[in-house]
Specification:
Strand content: under 5%
Order of helices and strands: H
Shape: rod-shaped
GO molecular function: NAD+ kinase activity
Helix content: over 70%
EC number: 2.7.1.23
Distance between the termini: 76 Å
Organism: Shigella flexneri CDC 796-83
Protein name: Putative inorganic polyphosphate/ATP-NAD kinase
Keywords: Kinase, Membrane, Transferase, Transmembrane, Transmembrane helix
Oligomer: single chain
Amino acid sequence: MPLRRFLFFTTHEFLRVFFAFISLTSLIMGISFRVSREALTLSSIFATRTSEK
């Protein structure tokens, strides 16, 4: 196996893992951000309802 092909494959694999990691991180960040936003809106609705009583 030539060195150039080896470097190409390792770089390709590294980029694939890198992009997969970035997409996974962005997905987790987006989900957690959405969940925290929903929790904030739910807690604010709950607080307003309890304060009305």
